[in-house]
């Protein structure tokens, strides 16, 4: 069965959904049709600004995020990058579509200001409270036990925004679901690891978090886009819930891991393997 199409005949970009596309989102997003995406989830670089190794009290090194993709020369360069990808995302988002962005205190306030400058309208800020956060090993500040998600629509007057209120209420024991969500960090069998046991991706998000986002703010058959696709968690959540998906990812090692993961998932769900080509 052929993969479902976003648009026909786009030069330089496979015109299909249900794929992991390798490349920089700033190069790929402009090639997607305007107003074609129902839901965007973005887990961009946090610009953590780590200036030295993180050490435990026993002097062992903490496995922290020090990859090149999280390095920026300045706040100004990070802001320019953020403004560029958010502008590109806004173009491909349907008038009735919504966008989620996740971040930490390092970047989320800068991202939020740029979202408002670009015309997005906040629907909620949701706090993911980690039930098993990494401790602050040096004991010099509070443990960072949460991350923030911003949920937005394209404009203040955007109509037809989808929210599966009753499903979320039923999931919450018949009470209106709140904006504080408790999930553990990604671990155990869910965490993708290399042959030597190291993490494939340092910031892999828990599937339960993406599952809730997808179910809360999209409908079966909707197209879910992740411009920083990583190892494919957003696509797995979309696939399991009958949504179409499209991942953009720059780093080759993450592309390989995501495609392998989604091949396993499609086989488990009896979805045609052609849907995870690239």
Question: If you had to describe this structure to a student in words, what would you say it looks like?
Answer:
By secondary structure, the protein is an alpha/beta fold. The chain is built from 7 helices and 8 strands, in the order E-H-E-H-E-H-E-E-H-E-H-E-H-E-H. An 8-stranded mixed beta sheet has the order 1-8-7-2-3-5-4-6, with helices on both faces. The N terminus and C terminus are likely disordered.
Give the SSE map.
Layout: E1 19-22, H1 25-28, E2 37-42, H2 75-92, E3 93-103, H3 108-117, E4 121-130, E5 146-153, H4 165-171, E6 180-183, H5 207-217, E7 223-226, H6 233-240, E8 244-249, H7 252-269
Parallel strand pairs: 1-8, 2-3, 2-7, 4-6, 7-8
Antiparallel strand pairs: 3-5, 4-5
Key features of this structure:
single chain; 278 residues; alpha/beta; eight-stranded mixed β-sheet; 7 helices; 19% strand; disordered N terminus
Give the helix proportion (percent range). Answer: 25-40%
- Give Rg in angstroms: 18 Å
The main sheet orders its strands as 1-8-7-2-3-5-4-6
What is the tally of helical segments?
7
Give a brief description.
The protein has 278 residues and is an alpha/beta fold. Helix content is 27%, strand content 19%.
